Amino acid sequence: MTIRRILYCLAVVLLAAFPARGKPTRKIRVTFNRTCEAVPARMVLVINGNEKILTRLDRAGTSQTWTATREGKTFDAEHSTGSLRLGRARTDCRESSAEEDAADRNGPSVAVFVFDCNVLPASDVDVLVAPDTIPVRYERSLARDTLESSRPCSEAGEVSSSAPTIYDVRLPKEKLRLQIGDLAPAGAPGVPLRLSKRLHLDRKTLLGYQNKLRVQGELSAPNVSPNAIDIDARSIEKTGFQTLDVTVK
Amino acid sequence: MRARALLSVLTVLAAAGASAQMRPIFDPDDFVDPRQHEGPVFVSRLVAGAAAGYADDYRPLHQSARFLHLANSYYRGNVQLDYKHSEVRAKDNSPAEVSACGCSEPIYFPTPPSRRSTPAAPLPSRKETLQFAWYHAAGNGAVDPPVMLRYRLSWSWQPADTVIRSGQTGQVLSHLSGDEQAFGLEAETRLRIRGHNLFGALQYAYTVRSGTIDDRIQQELVYTARLPGTSYRGIVLRPTLAVGAVTGRGAAGLNVINPAAEAFWHHPATRANLHLVWSPAATRSGTAGWETHHQLAVYIDRAVYLKVFGRRDDGKKGEASQ
Fold first, then answer.
1. What is the pTM of this model?
2. Are A221 and B45 inside 8 Å of each other by CB?
3. How many CB pairs (< 8 A) connect A and B?
4. ipTM (interface pTM)
């Protein structure tokens, strides 16, 4: 018996002994807690901050209920967080509750998300990095609003030259950070974007932009550390970064 | 009572994070957020420049000085180790030369400052410094990444030799081989006010000079507010404000108020940095009351060696340059 086979058997035994906690599902139901006057034709749900998987919702007739089946892996029907992209508007994050599926009582539960109508404007943000072979990951965060059911939003996804848009960003309250290739180690906070309308950075100005953020003291005491600058310069050089263009639409 | 005071200080240090100073005016910032590098980093940096009205730990030298400083920093994970060597030179350098009257109870000329006065700074010489720092990530609200605070221990040593000559003949009577050592703790702090961070550093330093004709002990407890800076056309401006108390000068309580501003310019092509620092320190002593002393330093620094050890993702062992 090969080692690979032994490991496989061990994994099967472990999975059987310690099943995943929660109520795994792909079924989704979204409602609003009051009638919304203007409901967009296209609504997309982001679950657990993962913007790589956008779940398009279908309206059940003219009701205030939308349903969907999520692609990819299952998620916990209970205590998952979700937020809606409404097309130039977005919701805050809410926690799901699990409900039995009336049409399939023996099947998985339905994750039910209840949102408030939201008309606060949001913008689409295009991000283009040259060369386009550099992977760009973004993180977006939105503090919880005053409602008790609101949850802090921390969501992430990727942009590329073929799909450069981050949808429905509620600027300036919502914060955006970019992880450009290996500019910083995996898991480190990305470069925060201070956006007005356009931002263009090349190698030299990116270094200046990072220095400016450092002296403003965003994630540490304000400093002008030459060692930090040299490490940044080395990372920019090594990544092969040329330009970054960000446009708020 | 003393134990309670000590406990209060330790509580503040523990609660707030840590950041202690004792830094000469020409020692560049060396904070590197551990999230900025994956593998260890070693940087050797050379600093050269001059300062008008040079002061050493709130003790004016009463002369201008030029300096050469080599800072070696090693960063690994949340730990930073430093070895720094400084050479400061002025018109009058160490060893100090004094005349003695030859009396049974010797009287020295020039006479050292009284115990109620601001002590004289040790005359310029070399200085060796070892530092150990630890970085700690602290919460920053529900959705923002944590802030990084640094806690640092420092030890520095410099010779403070004295040549004693006869007041009558000028003949060397004796040679005192003294030194000055300083132990410091620096704790960076963060206060969150209405969703905004106010950063600072609480610094404690214990400085002892021995083997001289003016042996002294100085303790300092200073809080430095590190205010957000700004930049204009690539020139970065950073203000700080230090307030605190220094012992050994006949004035109890708050006796140091030290605003400072640093202008910094990085030249990308040469990777050199130009610093201009203005530090007007108002200090109070028992004999002179409040006095303001201006330090103005200009210096250039550049990494002479930088090695970023291999990242896990590319498998390279590391790169050296410069």
1. 0.85
2. no
3. 146
4. 0.89
